Amino acid sequence: MASSASRSTTMDLAYIAVFAALIIVLGFLSIPVGGAGVPIVLQNAAIILCGLVLGCRRGGLTALLVLLIGCALPVLAGGRTTLQALAGPTAGYLVGYVISAFVAGFIAYRARTTTSSLTLMLSIAAVLGLLIQYLCGMGGLMLRSGLSLSAAAVAQAPFLLPDIAKIIVAVLIAAGVHSAFPDLMGSSRTRHA
């Protein structure tokens, strides 16, 4: 029993480390957009993908790990550290990263393993994860940039189409991963979620 639990913990740590590395690598790709100082990035979709694939606990821990590493190293979009990002207009998005990974993972791991049910739940989880990132981001823009609610909402507009495309890809990847590795979500669903 202890061996099985130890192996499970080791696998969890490996999954978290691999996804944290993926999120960090994707942080080097960013396109500045609009006047609010928020770039188009791939990190936000990778955060949601990690929740979809790893579940709420491991997904949330992965997002936290990236932010912790970011306290010492410039691993966030635009080569910023977590502390730099928290001091700027993107602070809310970072909070949204952790919450969205947790929520997306929670919803995704409640799916039945049939293909249509899984795809539907992954889609719902991804959209809600993205919505959480937007809402938290809007809150950060209001606090850090002094924008009104309507101005913060309008600032999200340039990101809608790219983010929808990224979410579609994330759902397809997550569905493929769960089809190839059903044990990732299988009988141990509650332990890993």
From TrEMBL:
Membrane topology qualifier: Multi-pass membrane protein
Bilayer-spanning residue ranges: 12-31, 37-54, 61-79, 91-109, 121-144, 164-181
Pfam families xrefs: BioY (PF02632)
Keyword Transmembrane helix tagged: yes
Record localization: Cell membrane
Gene Ontology molecular function, alphabetical: biotin transmembrane transporter activity
GO cellular component, one term: plasma membrane
Keyword set, alphabetical order: Cell membrane, Membrane, Transmembrane, Transmembrane helix, Transport
Coiled-coil regions listed in the entry: none
Gene3D superfamilies reported in the protein's UniProt record: 1.10.1760.20
Similarity comment: family membership: Belongs to the BioY family.
Protein name, as recorded: Biotin transporter
Protein's organism: Corynebacterium uropygiale
Upper taxonomic lineage: Bacteria, Bacillati, Actinomycetota, Actinomycetes, Mycobacteriales
